[in-house]
Fold this sequence. Notes:
By secondary structure, this protein is α+β, with helices and mostly antiparallel strands. It has helices at about 20-30, 50-70, 80-85, 90-95, 120-130, 180-200, 245-250, 275-285, 310-325, 340-350, 360-365, 385-405, 410-415, 420-430, 445-455; strands at about 35-40, 45, 70-75, 80, 100-105, 110-115, 140-150, 165-175, 205-210, 220-225, 230-245, 255, 260-265, 265-270, 300-305, 330-335, 355-360, 370-375, 380-385, 415, 430-435, 460-465, 485-490. The protein contains 15 helices and 23 strands. It starts with 20 loop residues before the first helix and ends with a strand. Residues about 1-10 have low confidence and may be disordered.
Amino acid sequence: MAKKKNEAPLTGITVSKEEDFSGWYTELINKAELADIRYNIKGFVVYREWATITIRKMYRKSEDLLELKGHLPLTMPSLIPESNFLLEAEHVEGFAPEVFWVTEAGSSGKLAERLALRPTSETALYKMYSMWIRSYKDLPFKRYLSCQVWRYEGKMTRPFFRGREFHWIESHNVFATMEGAMEQVKEDMETTYQILQDECCIPIIFFQRPEWDKFAGAVHTYAADALMGSGKVLQLPSTHLLGQNFSKPFNVKFVDTDGEEKYGYQTCYGPSQSRNYGAMIAFLGDNNGLVLPFDLAPIQIVIIPILFKQKEDLILTKAREIFERLKNKYTVKLDDSDESPGSKFYSWELKGVPIRIEIGPRDLEKNQMVLIKRHDGKKIFVKDPELEKVVDEIAQIYTKEIKEKSMIDFESQIELTYEKDAAIEAIKNGKIVACGFCSIDLDGECCAEAVEKEIGAEVRGKRVDEEKHEFATCIICGKPASCTVYLAKSY
RNA sequence: GGGAGGGUGGUCUAGCUUGGUAUGAUUCCUGGUUUGGGACCAGGUGGCCGGGGGUUCAAAUCCCCCCUCUCCCA
């Protein structure tokens, strides 16, 4: 855009994403009316219509995919009795500092037992699982729920990224064997790629998190890190191998083919829809506002009639005809309000509507219209009879084009380092570091702390896909390396 | 978690040092003229100055507590 940012009026974004990401994100949230932060409880925000529609579409895609893979939906109460919550010790220890408690009710005062506003639903669900699951014939038992959870976050809250209330899906599954559970973890990772990379156009990579950084109560945690382009990573959905850590205290047992009663092997998976949305708008947006994948846009096509005196009727009639031709296949808006055309262009760009169709007197004479794609600004003149065909073509490739632009070559961001100084330098240069590490079991935790202090990065864990590097020694302590880990700064 | 800075019509903001009638723009509504990248004219609506307490004849302004937001750093 040739237009200088400081000339932009208040309704547009005035901060450059490259120069001031935080300011840019705040303006995007406010001006595109995605969230309203004036609801004055810290960490609790109102998600406005435009964001809600897209988040619901994201939900639907994830839910459909989960059901396709054999999960059934259910709905759980949002309160968990403290006695349930206390059953698994590590889980309690991990979550207790973040729990909101309901301690009083109405006029009867204090409750006999405190009730936790669920921070996650393991301790609610597994109590039920122990009642529902009787035999190996009930397995695998795959369920999910779409809900809100509450965690009293100490860290700085940001709309969508980190709130004290957030919106997610959690899937909870039970298997007869550890291998069955591990297969589920792999399936969850595949699901995550399908949603985040293919639908949301966010590049990700999965790591097995170190022991000290795993989900409270899990055997192992596998988490997606989004590659934000600057060498920084952002944690997105994680899937957890629970083994029998919960099935034992919650008594989730089944009678196996051999007649023996056994504890199930469990997994859980929690993709946060609100955080995924935040990551998507932050990653794809530009200095004109939102950029959205075609399927996730609340409005996919906006028609803007260029009305001139004497010719209003002709143009409006044509615009309405275009609307009628497209409305059954796409979500279309005809913006015939009396704003000036330029003003409409800016505001629908801010909202990230993928296709804009302009129709004016000059087009009418030539029996054509003008299509503009939001994500690259390309302008296409289309003859009237070609309209449906061209729109179909754009709809087909629009998301793929965004994805192509946004997929970062992960390998090119990695720097292999053998010494601490090299790692410090690489992190400073915005790279992700691959290096040897003594252990991602608990005995490696002090080396991880050294990584944070001395290198200024976090140990993200062991890469899940193929491992190519061979490092002889740990970058910190010099002992023989048991694995290759990746170090990065995180959001 | 540590630090810094904010909260005044829907939005942005002046006023606060030195207490005394609430400033401007924009949005919104009405009417009219316009319309190919942020149009214009005229009129109008809209405020418990974040909340509570204190000082004072008098508080947006001074003092205390709380809530909340923004930015930076663990």
